[in-house]
């Protein structure tokens, strides 16, 4: 298990605490990777998204896997819709689809994790889903999208990548 970093410990200056799990940034990269997979596979990417949701149940506490799976399914559908139906250049679609999907994913996951910790551990409401934790998660997830979008934009401008293909 990968430990999370406590930015502000519970009971300190901010009662619920603020945590940043290293996998938060990896989760953000999933949105970007999915865009590239869709560019190659088309709408068959939806099958892979379904497999990924099912896979999460093998690697996590079942209640957290459910929260994660629902968040992933909902946010990936938002990402897929934006990426599929907008006609912006690739670098822009990557950034916009991630910017819309990331807050959805974060909200649904933290809400589910909050409920799971209340039910299983008896923690108080707001143990995971609170504004500061939400902001940290969204920023962590968007870091990768911003970097990849910038790199792709530079490649588009140099003519190395077709900005409107797929």
Commentary on this structure:
Helix 1 crosses helix 3 (62-85) and helix 1 (23-41) packs across helix 4 (90-121). By secondary structure, this protein is mainly α. The protein contains five helices and two strands. Strands 1-2 form a two-stranded antiparallel ribbon. The protein is elongated, with a radius of gyration of 17 Å. The termini are far apart. The longest helix has 32 residues, at 90-121. Helices cover 68% and strands 4% of the residues. The protein has one domain.
Please give the order of strands in the largest beta sheet: 1-2
The low-confidence parts are none
How far do the termini sit from each other? Answer: 38 Å
What is the string of SSEs from the N terminus onward?
A: EEHHHHH
Number of strands: 2
Quick summary:
The protein has 166 residues and is mainly alpha-helical.
Write the layout of secondary structure elements.
Elements: E1 5-8, E2 18-20, H1 23-41, H2 45-55, H3 62-85, H4 90-121, H5 131-157
Helix pairs in contact: 1-3, 1-4, 1-5, 2-3, 3-4, 4-5
Labels describing this entry:
two-stranded antiparallel sheet; mainly alpha; 166 residues; 68% helix
